[in-house]
Amino acid sequence: MKEKFVSYLIETIKKHRHVVILTSSMLLIVMNYFIMLNLKSNHLSFSHLMYIPIVITGTFLGTPYGLVIAIVSGLAVGPIMPYNLTTGQPQFWGDWFFRLLMMASIGVLSGMVGFNYRKSQIDIKDIKTKHPDSGLYNLNYLREIKLETKKVYTVSTLIIGNAQAICEVQGYEVYYTYLRLMADKFMKTYPDMIFIQPEIHKLWLIKPTYDFDLEIEDYVKFVQSSKYVDDLTLFIDFALGFTQRKHIAEKRIANYFIQSDIAATEAKAKNLMYLTFSDINTNKQFEYELLTDFEDALSNGQIYMVYQPKMDLKTKRPIGLEALIRWEHPKKKMINPDQFIYAIEKTNMIHQMTQQVFKWSLDYQVKLNKESIYLPISINISTKNLYDLHFYEKMVGIFKSYKKIKPNMVEFEITESLLMEDPENSKKMLQALSNYGFKIAIDDFGKGYSSLAYLAQFPINTIKIDRFFTNQVLINPTTQHIVKATIDLAKQLSYEVLIEGIEDKETADLLERLGCHSAQGYYFKKPAKEEDIMTYLKKYIGQ
Ligand code: C2E
Ligand code: CA
Ligand code: CA
């Protein structure tokens, strides 16, 4: 209680220090004046007491205030004081004027000393707590932060994944200017935010929470819109991690950022703009439950295949099918392949899954053949499948038990990123599959960074242009040029070209005009179950 009162008192005095110091100095001046007036000449030394308010005011409030108090003091013991303090006679103007000058110079001097002292204190503090180049606070500053007990704070980590590249290509000064401009943008909306730069590529942000979801949105927006430095536009490969923490007085604040660091690192690894720590926990649990249920689901009918036709863009007839996996979970309802394949890929169950998918699609091929429908079926191969040295033997082993199906009725879709990861191994594996007679398609082409020239070394039959381009091709002339150039070059290299994700007639027509052979998309047919696709395909028989 007593301590609280003392710290409250100190805070109040600090806040109103001008009023406190000026009032005390004026009181001292008045007190001195009356002491001297009463003691007259006998106590000359009391005139020196006037220096006390002057020095105090100058030192603490600066030169202008020091000078004002010095003049007030000088006048008080000058023309206003009727006596010459030495002789008791009326004052000679030269005496008091000289004294006033002395006092004024002490006021100015003490003001300068105080100012320089305070400035050097600030400089020392800055050197200790600020990054010399970006001017943002460093880790030392964390010890100086005072958070309010029991308040909830939004704690976040911003990772600039390509910080090093920006520094090397554009220069350090550009990068640090970028950081400063971004900090300004944040601070404009959230003045109570504390911005810390613990590492060159990492920033920590902390502020009291008002609306967590809105803050997440704002942060992403601010980072995205901060890429302009003068007339340069930077490419910023960032990821944000968020968590919320209630401040408990004595905790080390740096520890608060452990969770947001984990969230940001995970977001970066998954190429997401942000993640919250609670998302990760929920995801981890979700992933764990999926893995536990997966093996049973493969055999109890929860997991099954759907098929999507691939269409010839000229004749508008189906020329093949893509097999796509589905999981109808009793509790979690429909789970997208995008949601569970990445989890399965982390375990050896991915091999079992691909083999099962292969068997199911071959089973379907048998059913189609019985109806005199002969179309190649593609299956998607995971990156991890090709790391299995016996992948080829296993696939061929399965295939051999379907005596009537020809190898060219099977196509394997492989993403280009896979070929980049381990080109030597992939080349050998693909060559073996291709020599056997299976077809190979490059999936999601354009999403990665490989060029067609690079792909020419692999035995490829088809290039599937990613549906990202399909969305853009009607509205964006640059995308149209890229797609056209890709189609032309792919044709020169004797690849079939398929475009994914066609959703309307206009896009289908445009791509036909651009010379694309085939397409897949909701416009023609959404992926559907066996019976549905069978009915769809039967319409084309005999036409
Ligand atoms: P993908 O190989 O690129 O498959 C095409 C995806 O695009 C499918 O999503 C399909 O439903 C969707 N799609 C087709 N046409 C359109 C369209 O017009 N508009 C839009 N917006 N989307 C369209 P799905 O089935 O959710 O599969 C997602 C991804 O999961 C696939 O992408 C593939 O990479 C993976 N996947 C699916 N089945 C398997 C599988 O059996 N094994 C492996 N390893 N991966 C699979
Ligand atoms: Ca595919
Ligand atoms: Ca694709």
CATH topology of the largest domain: TIM Barrel
Percent of residues in helices: 40-55%
Strand order of the largest sheet: 8-9-11-12-13-14-15-16
CATH class of the largest domain: Alpha Beta
Q: How would you state the average pLDDT, rounded?
A: 89
CATH architect. name of the largest domain: Alpha-Beta Barrel
Bound compounds: ligand C2E, calcium ion
User: Approximately how much beta-strand content do the residues carry?
Assistant: 15-25%
* Full CATH superfamily name of the largest domain: EAL domain
Oligomeric state of the chains? Answer: single chain
Which spans have pLDDT < 50 for at least 5 consecutive residues? Answer: none
Record field, number of beta strands:
16
Radius of gyration: 39 Å
